[in-house]
Design brief:
Elements (H helix, E strand, L loop, with lengths): L2 H6 L6 H11 L10 H7 L5 H4 L42 E2 L20 E2 L12 E6 L5 E4 H5 L4 E8 L16 H5 L2 E10 H8 L7 E6 L7 E4 H6 L2 E6 L2 E2 L9 E3 L12 E7 L14 E2 L5 E2 L8 E6 L11 E10 L5 E7 L7 E2 L1 E2 L9 E9 L4 E9 L8 H8 L12 E4 L5 E4 L3
Parallel strand pairs: 3-12
Antiparallel strand pairs: 1-2, 3-4, 5-6, 6-9, 7-8, 7-12, 9-10, 9-11, 13-14, 15-16, 16-20, 17-18, 17-21, 19-20, 21-22, 22-23
The protein binds ligand MTE and cobalt (II) ion (CO).
Cobalt (II) ion binds next to loops.
Length: about 425
């Protein structure tokens, strides 16, 4: 994080927060947090926020027509997507990062959900939208947007993680913030039609073993997907979090390929061809191979393995209230199913405590975890470790490097370490 970004972080302590801290120092129980201001009053320090009439209570607020489509209040202006300029040569074929350090819950608001384009975000109107299904089918079909709306609809919540997420961290701790190390991920509730419904409408021939999917943008982002996955849980989505997809996320229609690499989630979906083999020659942008420690490469790694990260405290979300009650929180996910447990360590992985899942893990969706501790103010090496329903446990960086070496880019799902210092600031580090 550069100085400019640091400067955009909210100011440290409001008077209220200071009072609360004093109150806590007095040995009060964590459950009594809200009584902080009252304690200040008891100590005889009048709090103007309570005793004085404030501007927001003396005039009118905005009328209901002030913002027909609302944005976050200006105080939250730093909760935004950010990119890393040196990462790519041009913003047209680039990526930005979700501010996961500043969000809570599991649903990513569309306005700050990361974007990844190979040839820029295009503007495609619903009226101009066509989806073709052809190849090894009984009946080639072309659907308009309105046609898609007439098929039985489903709602599903899924994470999308770019295969390159955490990719800059292979050789060493590099980017200082959960947004930058783990922010190529978003989690939305999609509404749409299952791809299976549409494929059945066209009738897949027995020789049809793969589908080749492509988008309407110049890159087309063509990908081959095995027919089993296509008929299992893929979704042709046109709404996310209840509203139309944002332009940058594929408006008006995108493909969801739950649990699999983000690059297969074709945006502006325009064509599904049923084939008898993978059509690699056409996959212009699909060079998503994984380098292994022995110098060979692994061709396909579609599934995103279990992974987690502490989102707060973290470099962009330092501890500001001093010692005492501290909420440690983060996100966990797995492309192989539901998260069943998350363990948190404050001593660099020597000892672990099971965190509390905010809700039972859902398949291929983000899970929020919390660990409520009494921080003694000493430094911590903070880590989280996810386990999914297959029993798979998130590996350490060393375990992953033993297999993958240090020259990989994709599929880095290792345990992340934040060094939280006595002053509450945190840094991206590695522990051996
Ligand atoms: N689809 C099209 N048509 N064009 C693209 O450039 N990028 C892919 C995928 N689908 C891409 C695409 C990649 S690499 C990722 S990680 C995801 O879209 C990103 O989706 P998002 O922009 O909604 O975050
Ligand atoms: Co990607």
């Amino acid at each position: 994080m550069d100085e400019k970004e640091r400067a955009t972080l909210p100011a440290t302590d409001s008077g209220l927060a200071l009072n609360r801290r004093n109150f806590l120092r007095g040995g009060a129980a964590a459950g009594a947090l809200v009584a902080g201001a009252a304690a200040a009053k008891a100590e005889g320090t009048p709090d103007p926020l309570i005793t004085e009439k404030q501007p927001w209570a003396t005039g009118w607020g905005d009328g209901v027509d002030a913002t027909p489509y609302g944005l976050p209040i200006r105080f939250e202006g730093d909760v935004i997507r950010r990119n890393v300029e040196w990462l790519t040569a041009d913003v047209i074929s680039s990526i930005n990062f979700t501010p996961i350090h500043a969000l809570d819950g599991t649903i990513t608001p569309a306005g700050c959900a990361f974007e990844r384009h190979h040839s820029g975000a295009i503007e495609l109107a619903k009226e101009d939208y066509r989806l073709m299904i052809h190849g090894l089918v009984d009946k080639p079909l072309v659907f308009t947007y309105e046609d898609l709306e007439r098929f039985p609809r489903v709602n599903r919540t899924y994470f999308l993680e770019c295969a390159a997420n955490t990719g800059m961290e292979w050789a060493g701790a590099q980017l200082n913030g959960a947004q930058f190390t783990h922010g190529m991920i978003h989690n939305m509730e999609y509404s749409g039609v299952t791809l299976r419904t549409l494929l059945e409408e066209a009738g897949v021939k027995p020789e049809g073993k793969w589908i080749y999917v492509e988008g309407a943008d110049a890159s087309s982002n063509g990908r081959s997907i095995p027919i089993e996955k296509a008929l299992d849980d893929c979704l042709v989505a046109f709404k996310a979090n209840g509203e139309a997809l944002r332009k940058e996320h594929g408006y008006p229609v995108r493909l969801c390929v739950p649990g699999w690499e983000g690059n297969m989630w074709v945006k502006w979906l325009r064509r599904v061809e049923v084939t008898d083999q993978a059509v690699e020659s056409r996959e212009e942008t699909s060079k998503y191979t994984d380098t292994l420690a022995d110098g060979t490469s692994r061709k396909w790694t579609w599934v995103m393995d279990a992974k987690s990260v502490v989102t707060s405290p973290s470099p962009q979300s330092p501890i500001k209230h001093g010692k005492g009650p501290l909420v440690i929180t983060g996100l966990a996910w797995s492309g192989r199913g539901a998260i069943t447990a998350v363990d948190v360590s404050i001593d660099g992985g020597k000892t672990w405590t099971e965190a509390r899942l905010a809700a039972p893990g859902q398949k291929m969706a983000l899970t929020r975890f919390y660990l409520d501790i009494e921080w003694d103010g000493s430094e911590m090496l903070l880590q989280s470790r996810a386990t999914d329903e297959t029993g798979y446990v998130q590996p350490t960086k060393k375990q992953l490097r033993d297999v993958r070496g240090e020259n990989s880019v994709y599929h880095n799902n290792c345990i992340q370490t934040w060094w939280v210092k006595e002053n509450g600031e945190a840094e991206n580090v590695e522990v051996s």
